[in-house]
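COMPLEX REQUEST
Ligand: magnesium ion
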Amino acid sequence: NGVLMSQMSRPCQMMLLVNPQSGKGQALTLYNNHIQRMLNEAGIKHTLVITERQNHAREMVKEADLSQWDALVIMSGDGLLYEVINGLLERPDWEEAIRTPLGILPGGSGNALAASIHHYSGASPVTSEELLVSCGFLLCKGLVSHMDMVSVHLCSSPRLFSFLSLAWGFVADVDIESEKYRHFGAVRFTIGTLVRLASLRVYKGRLAYLPATKDHNSEEALRSNTMLCKDRVPPVTLPAVRDSSFHNSCHSNNSLKVRRVESTPSRSATKALPGPHDSLLPPLDQPLPDDWVVVPEEDFVLMLAMYQSHLAEDLLAAPEATPDDGVIHLFYVRAGISPTALLRLFLAMEKGAHLTTNCQHLVYTKVQALRLEPYSPKGIITVDGEVVEYGPVQAEVHRGLSRLITG
Ligand code: ADP
Ligand code: MG
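STATUS: Structure written out below.
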């Protein structure tokens, strides 16, 4: 399917970060019941690290000796991977660090990336423990793809990185308001959606974007991107070699080490910040270049920027998305849509059919960068499902910056 893949090589040692509080609080039980045996049978040596609090994983990967690890795998929701990615990109050696293969096993309530990986494998949709088993299997296969990373600029917070989504309006509100239903698992989003539909509101702001160029989708761009990173990435095979798995090159040591890593205080931000240069974004308080498109509407029900296929386990928001298409799939819904029509959109999204429902209020476009300036002083913006500073925000995609184990 044109997705760049390489085989995990070298004797492999995996760090498996588990958030015991994620989702229904069952991640450790799920590990014991499903994952431990799978990894051991596949001969994958792994070290279990149980996170103790928010930002523990972020601080840990920021300081870790990455030469020890062939893959960092998280078992939680998307929130823990968000921490890991931002920790990696805060390192002085970020360029090397972000090339560490990353994996995800759905253990939380928001498991959008895990659902996306399962979707990319071509298998028919599943949820819950079936999704976990599928992702465990794909992880054991160990094929690595490139994954896009989006840098996000906020008004006064440091730049951050996102692998999944940027949301404002309805979707962001539901995501955060539904956290109190986390113990229901993935159903939390359905409950949250119904609650929010009952008090549907309009969000005012200015939205602008830089359209994706045609060659962003072409195979040629994909190749030139590979050429650029050729000397820095593990050997890339195209088409993918799918007949051997990364456990073949692993030590046959099945031992499981359990380690609780003590926390370290986070360092203050340095002046020369690590991470890739954002070539498309002027400073947030400066006007945008002429080739940007300003959306004529200023009244919205939602804005959703996606870079992977799934918004939640059962929401195929961007059916066309692939891990490294170098595209931000931008959706917005204009104000004036009825609650019933919006519900219909979300129901259709379960099968990724929302774009074919002919909803006049829904707009979909592919972009390289975007800027949103909300007019209201208060509200919710989420990045990968986590709340960030509210206010003007802009983002730019970095094609294939990271590595993801997709199987
Ligand atoms: P969920 O899908 O259930 O929201 P996440 O992976 O998104 O699961 O995790 C939710 C939050 O929990 C994240 O913000 C993460 O930083 C935080 N977290 C990680 N480890 C712990 C812990 N041991 N106790 C409490 N919170 C934690
Ligand atoms: Mg979460």
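REMARKS: The chain has a mean pLDDT of 87. Residues 77-79, 108, 110, 385 surround magnesium ion (ligand 2) (CB under 6 Å).
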